[in-house]
Amino acid sequence: MALSWLSLIILFISSASPVCAQKFDFPRLSLHHEKVFQDPDRRVQVSLISHFKTFFFHQTLDHFNYRPESYTTFKQRYLISSKYWGGANSSAPIFVYLGGEEPIDNDVNVVGFLNENAAQFKALVIYIEHRYYGKSIPLGMSFEEALKDPNARGYFSSSQALADYAAIIRHVKEKRKAKDCPVIVVGGSYAGMLASWFRLKYPHLALGALASSAPILYFDGITPQGGFFSVVTKDFKEASKTCYQTIRDSWAEIDRVASQPDGLSRLSKIFKTCRPLESGDELKNYLIDEYVRAAQYDVPPTYPVEVICGGIDGANASKNGILEKIFAGVVAISGNSSCYIVSPNGTTPSQTQLGWRWQRCSEMVMGDEGITNNSMFQPDPFNMSNFIDHCNRSYGVVPRPHWITTYYGGHDTKQVLRRFGSNIIFSNGLRDPYSSGGVLKNISDTIVAFPTRKGSHCLDILSASQDDPSWLVRQRKKEIEVIKGWITKYYADLLALKQ
Amino acid sequence: MALSWLSLIILFISSASPVCAQKFDFPRLSLHHEKVFQDPDRRVQVSLISHFKTFFFHQTLDHFNYRPESYTTFKQRYLISSKYWGGANSSAPIFVYLGGEEPIDNDVNVVGFLNENAAQFKALVIYIEHRYYGKSIPLGMSFEEALKDPNARGYFSSSQALADYAAIIRHVKEKRKAKDCPVIVVGGSYAGMLASWFRLKYPHLALGALASSAPILYFDGITPQGGFFSVVTKDFKEASKTCYQTIRDSWAEIDRVASQPDGLSRLSKIFKTCRPLESGDELKNYLIDEYVRAAQYDVPPTYPVEVICGGIDGANASKNGILEKIFAGVVAISGNSSCYIVSPNGTTPSQTQLGWRWQRCSEMVMGDEGITNNSMFQPDPFNMSNFIDHCNRSYGVVPRPHWITTYYGGHDTKQVLRRFGSNIIFSNGLRDPYSSGGVLKNISDTIVAFPTRKGSHCLDILSASQDDPSWLVRQRKKEIEVIKGWITKYYADLLALKQ
C-alpha cells in the first residue's frame, strides 16, 4: 500500500491549460485525485459498493419556482446500504454522503468514513448523486447535451442540489418510517461546502455535518488573494528550502530559455516531452499544476511534495542547472517513462472538469486562482473582469460573484455563527491549499474545527489504511466522538420531549 | 379612537365566496384588516410615511437558477427612513419590515412597531415590498398580467422573496457602509413567517426576528385540522355561552329555511340583504367570514366578538327566533344601514386576494380551512384532492404541499430548534385563530414565545394607541427588552472580536 498515492500521481494527467486565459478551467476542487478509483491498491474499497442498492428518485427540476417547466421531474440516483442499520424502531442514525462534482459511484469507492463507521453507529448509509453528474441528468439529455443547452444547464446550481438532497432524505425517512432517526451529512471539498450549508439551511433534516476540506471562505474576497498559492509555497518550503528556492528561480529561467530562437525545442528536450512544447506557458502551467496537486493531495506515507523535492534536491545538476533539477522533480513524481508532460490539449475533459467549469462560471466564483507576491510562483492576480469576460464568452451569462455569500453567508462567520447554528465539524489538512479558505478555529462549542498540520485534502473522510499515521487515526476518532456527542444529546432531547 | 377597529369592521366587505368549492379564495392571512389604512382615525400613522424616501432596487428575477431569463431584473420598491438613525460609525441598528401580500405603503401606515421604537434604538427603518405586489412587479407587466401569465407568475414564491430581501439588505448595508450594523427583521402574518424564516435562512444578514402571528406550523398536517375554527369557537364561547349556542344552532335553521319553497326570499327579508340571496350557502359563508374576522381582529378596546355577541344576546327574538338574533349580531358589527350582506360576486378582488390565491395554490398550502366537529360551525373537513383539483383548474399547476416543511422545516420544531438557531420572537394573540398554527411556547433561551390571552392578529406590531390595554403595552415593552438583549450581546461580541 505504501505507494498508493504516489501511483495516483503517476496516473495523473494534467488538466492545466497552456494559456493564461484558460487557467480558470482547472477543476482542482475535487475531494480526491480524479484517478483514485482506478488505483489497484484501493480495490479493497471498490468491493464496498456491493453492499449498496441503487435507487432513482423522481426529483423536481426547479424547487424554487412554479413555472410550468419547474414541475418537470428527472431521475436522481442514490445508493443505500442497510447492512449495518439498527432500524427505525431504535431510531438508529442515517449517514448521508452529499455528492459533489462527479458520478456518485466514484465516491462510494473512496469515501470510506461512512462505511467504516456505520457498524459502530448501526447507521443506514446513503450516497446521493449531485444533479447533472453521473446518471442524474435532467430533461432527458446526456451530460454533454445538458451542459450545452443554456436553459437546461441553468438549473445546475448548488441551491437546487441542496433542495434535491432535502427531498431525497425526507423521502427515505418517510419510506422507512424513520422520522426520529438522526441524519448526519458528510461531504468533502465542494461537497464539504454543501454538507456545512445543508446543516445551516436544513437543520430540520440533518442533525449535524462533517465538512471536510470545505473552503467556504473562498468567496467574495473573504480570504485574501494568494492564500491558496502561499500554502503550496509553505508546503514546499517546509519540505526543503533549497527545493523551494529552485522552483522559485525556475520560472524566470523557463521564460529566458523559451524566449530564445531554439528555446522551445531546448525545453522540450530537457523535459523529454511527449510532444514538442508550444510555449513556455505550457510547461509552466504543467509544473504549477503538478506542485498544486502534490500539495493538495500530499498524503502520507509518501507525501508527494517530499517526493518532488527529493527529485529536485537530489538531481545531478552540473550540466543544465535549474531546469534539470526541475525535470528531476517531474521524474520523481511521475516515475520512469519514455516521455513526459502530456498537454491536455486534445484530451476529452471529464464530467468533473466540464461540470465544475460551468459551476465556477455561474455561482462558484472562488478566489483560489490569484497568485500574489508571497509565493514561489510568478505573481498572477485574479482578474474578475477577465473572468467575467471568459464566462460570458463560454456560456453567454456572467457569474454572480456575491450570490454564495448572500445565500450561505461567509463574511464575519465567527460573529454570525457564534450564537447561531450548531453541530458542524470543519476538518482541514493544513497542507491542502484549500485550507486557506476553510474554517480553522472553533466557532462555538458545537461548531468546531479540526485542522491537522500534516493533513491534505479530504484525507479524514477517505478510506482508512493500515499505513495511516497516528495523528490521522486520532483525528478520525475525535470526529467520531463529536458526532456521538450530537447523537447522544439528540436522543436525550427526544426522550425528554416524549415524556 | 375608541371605535376605530369597529369602524374597520363596518368598512369590511366580505370576500367569502358563495359556494363551497370556492372557499379557498379566502385571503384571510393579512396582518391587518384590508381596510385599515382607509380608517380616518388612523390618520396619525398615515403621516409617518413622510419620513420615508422611496427607492427601487434592480432585483434579480430568479436567484436560484442560471437560465438566460433568470438574469432578468425588475425594479423592487423599498422605503427608508433615516430620521432616527445613529449612523454606521456607531453601528446603529437597522429595522427591516419584510413586506407581505400587499403593497408596502399600506404597511408603513399601520405597522407602527418599527417607527415607534426607532428613536430609542437610533435605528434606520426600511420597509421592503414583496415581489409581485404594489410597484414591484417583474417582467414589465401589470399585476394582473403577471398573475395571468403561467411563466411570469412562476417566479412568485416565498424563497425568491426572501432572497430579494437578502439582496436589498446587503445592498443598503454596503451603500451606507453599515457592515457592523445589526439588522432586526419584523413581519406579521405571512410576513411574520417570512421574518422567522429569514432569520433561520439568512442569519448572516439578520441578527434577529420579530415574527408576529406567524402560523409557521400550519403546513403539512403539523397542526391538526380544525384548530383554526376551534379558536374562533373558543372566542365566542368565552364572550358568551348563549351567543355561542345561538350561532351553533343557526346553521341548521338557515338550511331548514333555505330548503323551503320561499325560503331564500324569507332569509333575504330577515337579513335585509342588499340583493336577493342566491343560496343559503351565500348567507352562511358571509356569517362564517364575519365571525372569523371578528375573532382574528378581535382588537381592544371594543373587541368585535363581544360586539357581535352583544347584538345576538340582546336581540328581541320573540318573533323570528334564532335568525333574528343572528341578524342582530350582523347589525351590531356592521352598524345601521339600509341593507346588509353584500355578496362579493361582481366586486373586483384586491391584489392581496389575487396574489394570495396564487400563493396558496403553489406553495402556501395551509390547513386553516378545515372545520371539524369541535366547533360552533358545521363540519367541513379540508379535502386535499379537491384543493389540488381547484388549483389545477385555476392555474394548470398542482400545489406542492410538502415544500414549505421541506425547505423551512416545521415538523418537530421544538426538537430541531432547541439546539439550532437563535433570536426569534414568536408573538401570538390567542384570540387570533391563526395562533393555533403558531409557536406558543419558548423553544430555547433565545427563541421565545409571547402569547397574549386577549391578543388578536398582529396586534403587537400595529401602531400603538392611547387606548391600548396595559397587557399590550407590557408585551411590546418585553419584546423591546428581548431585542435590546440581542443587540447588546452582538455589540459585546463585536468588541471582543476586534480586540
Q: What descriptors fit this protein?
A:
glycoprotein (chains A, B); eight-stranded mixed sheet; hydrolase (chains A, B); Peptidase_S28 (chains A, B); Ser_carbopepase_S28_SKS (chains A, B); homodimer; 42% helix; signal (chains A, B); alpha/beta; disordered N terminus
Task: Let me know the largest β-sheet of chain A.
Answer: 8 strands, mixed
Order of helices and strands of chain A: HHEEEHHEHHEHEHHHHHHHHHHEEH
* Strand residues, percent of chain A: 5-15%
* Overall outline of chain A: globular
What's the average pLDDT of chain A?
90
Q: For the largest sheet of chain A, list the strands in their spatial order.
A: 1-2-4-3-5-6-7-8
Summarize the structure.
The structure is a homodimer of 499-residue chains. Helices cover 42% and strands 10% of the residues of chain A. By secondary structure, chain A is α/β, with parallel strands linked by helices.
Give a topology summary.
The structure is a homodimer of 499-residue chains.
Chain A: H1 4-11, H2 43-46, E1 53-60, E2 73-81, E3 94-98, H3 104-110, H4 113-121, E4 124-128, H5 143-148, H6 158-175, E5 183-188, H7 190-201, E6 208-212, H8 227-239, H9 241-258, H10 263-270, H11 280-296, H12 304-314, H13 322-334, H14 351-362, H15 384-395, H16 403-408, H17 413-417, E7 424-429, E8 447-452, H18 470-498
Parallel strand pairs in A: 3-4, 3-5, 5-6, 6-7, 7-8
Antiparallel strand pairs in A: 1-2, 2-4
Helix pairs in contact in A: 8-9, 8-11, 9-10, 9-11, 9-12, 9-13, 12-13
How would you describe this protein?
Chains A, B: One of its GO terms (molecular function) is serine-type exopeptidase activity. Chains A, B: This is Lysosomal Pro-X carboxypeptidase-like. Chains A, B: Keywords: Glycoprotein, Hydrolase, Protease, Signal. Chains A, B: InterPro entries: AB_hydrolase_fold, Peptidase_S28, Ser_carbopepase_S28_SKS. Chains A, B: Residues 1-21 form the signal peptide. Two copies of one chain form a homodimer. By secondary structure, chain A is of the alpha/beta class. Chain A is built from 18 helices and eight strands. Chain A has helices at residues 4-11, 43-46, 104-110, 113-121, 143-148, 158-175, 190-201, 227-239, 241-258, 263-270, 280-296, 304-314, 322-334, 351-362, 384-395, 403-408, 413-417, 470-498, and strands at 53-60, 73-81, 94-98, 124-128, 183-188, 208-212, 424-429, 447-452. An eight-stranded mixed sheet of chain A has the order 1-2-4-3-5-6-7-8, sandwiched between helices. In chain A, β5, α7 (190-201) and β6 (208-212) form a beta-alpha-beta unit. The radius of gyration of chain A is 23 Å and the shape is globular. The N and C termini of chain A lie far apart (52 Å). The model of chain A is unreliable at 1-27 and 34-46 (pLDDT under 50).
